[in-house]
Design goal:
single chain, alpha/beta, Metallo-beta-lactamase, Chain A, elongated, NDM-1-like, MBL fold metallo-hydrolase, Metallo-B-lactamas, RibonucZ/Hydroxyglut_hydro
Length: 247
């Protein structure tokens, strides 16, 4: 994993790959610079924030922007799309925000840089995608992986399927790959595997609690791999997926 700071506030992760963290949500944005065009990964939480991002993109390159990939539907990753006028948003077909919707995969050649966008399955949301910069061995994974905090289970998450999605992410990444989370600094594949195991442990405990007939309250009173206060949505969603009444 090779990382170097640039003079423009971006962190360079490979010959074509950059990342930058932004407040107020500590979201990590990606930029891929090819010889012919650029690809932006996520767009921040408002048009004004998107305009700031666009200005920062232009400190590195004035090449045309091929698209803005939304790694998932949450507002801190999509609501800056409109700042990129005339640029298509790309993401999973379940996202209302995108002009180019993929069901499984999409790719583009930025000139000297092949980029693959892959849907690994439902996980943090129904429509997560991974952006793989093939020559750089860099993968932008959105909130499938978190570095600055624990995995974020929301009321639209798929806690029982998330681990399988991360299996695919690990399979896409070479041992020396750099992985860019949706929030926080870049990590390596070992970090992803460790977080995957935590997510699998949570899923297995949800299944066991449901099989034992526990209420959600009783299930959350157990010891968990993560702080139980962070797991109410995970347990509730897991019970829904298993067809267990949310009592």
């Amino acid at each position: 994993m090779s990382i170097a700071l640039t003079s423009h506030g971006w962190t360079q992760l490979g010959p074509h790959s950059y990342a930058r963290r932004y407040e107020p949500y500590d979201v990590t944005i990606g930029l891929i610079v090819g010889s012919d065009a650029l690809l932006v990964v996520d767009s921040r939480a408002s048009v004004a924030e998107g305009e700031e991002l666009l200005a920062d993109v232009r400190t590195l390159s004035d090449k045309p922007i091929r698209g803005v990939v939304n790694t998932h539907r949450h507002v801190d990753h999509t609501q800056g799309n409109a700042a990129f006028k005339g640029v298509d948003a790309i993401g999973h077909e379940t996202l209302d925000e995108v002009a180019i919707g993929l069901s499984s995969a999409w790719s583009t050649d930025l000139g000297d840089c092949l980029v693959e966008v892959v849907h690994p399955g439902a996980a943090h949301t129904a429509g997560d995608v991974v952006v793989k910069v093939v020559p750089d061995r860099v993968a932008y994974v959105g909130d499938l992986v978190e570095e600055s905090g624990p995995p974020a289970y929301g009321d639209d998450s798929y806690p029982l399927e998330w681990g399988a999605a991360l299996d695919l992410v690990v399979g896409l990444c070479e041992p020396e790959a750099t992985v860019v989370p949706g929030h926080g600094d870049a990590v390596d594949r070992d970090f992803v595997q460790e977080q995957r195991q935590t997510i699998l442990d949570v899923a297995n405990q949800i299944r066991a609690a449901a099989a034992a007939g526990m209420t959600i309250e009783d299930a959350l009173a157990q010891k968990w791999p993560l702080e139980p206060s962070l797991l109410e949505h995970a347990v509730r969603r897991g019970y829904e997926q298993l067809g267990v009444p949310a009592t």
